[in-house]
Design brief:
5 helices; Alpha-D-Glucose-1,6-Bisphosphate, Chain A, domain 4; alpha+beta; 9-stranded antiparallel β-sheet
Length: about 180
């Protein structure tokens, strides 16, 4: 819990290359720079075959269900399975999709670990072939946001983003256009 207390005391933390801030009483913002053009990063955020390779794909967890319809009003559904068979699921609806720069969607877990629904905004800004991804999650209350921070979610996000960086590097080596 050292990282969580560090976040509460300073409102900024770096885990690996992930920067986490609390820009308001209801929000958590997570920022990381990826060595890839934003078209490629956007694809990794919106294509099921790519999402399954990085989002929560560590410690022997898999994502057997990954359904994504990245258009305004389209839904997404993710389900993960751990090595012990335990699972976790979540989903939401896209509210805004601006390729390749912005995604806004709702987020709700099947077994809520925070009350209500969150809004997740991801922006992608490219500079000289590198993309800064900023994901801001807005919770219904400060208590919900603080509850998420106490669960030390930064470790999981950092691990997922490390997997994303590896995926983007391998796609560059393989000559992927997007």
């Amino acid at each position: 819990m050292y990282l969580t207390s560090q976040l509460f005391n300073r409102k900024v933390i770096n885990v690996s290359e992930l920067k986490v801030t609390t820009p308001s009483d209801h929000e958590i913002a997570m920022t990381r720079v990826f060595d890839a053009p934003r078209e490629r990063v956007f694809d990794a955020w919106t294509k099921p075959d790519l999402i399954q390779r990085w989002l929560g794909a560590f410690n022997d967890w898999s994502m057997p269900v990954c359904e994504v319809d990245p258009r305004v009003g389209g839904a997404y559904r993710f389900e993960w399975r751990g090595p012990d068979g335990h699972g976790m699921g979540m989903g939401g609806v896209y509210r805004e999709v601006v390729r390749p720069e912005r995604l806004v969607a709702t987020e709700r877990f099947d077994e809520p670990w925070y009350p209500g629904e969150a809004q997740v905004t991801t922006t992608l800004a490219e500079d000289r072939g590198k993309t800064t991804a900023t994901t801001t999650v807005r919770y219904e209350s400060r208590e919900a946001r603080d509850g998420v921070l106490k669960m030390d979610m930064t470790q999981g996000v950092a691990k997922s983003y490390d997997k994303l960086a590896e995926l983007l590097a391998s796609r560059a080596r393989d000559g992927a256009v997007h």
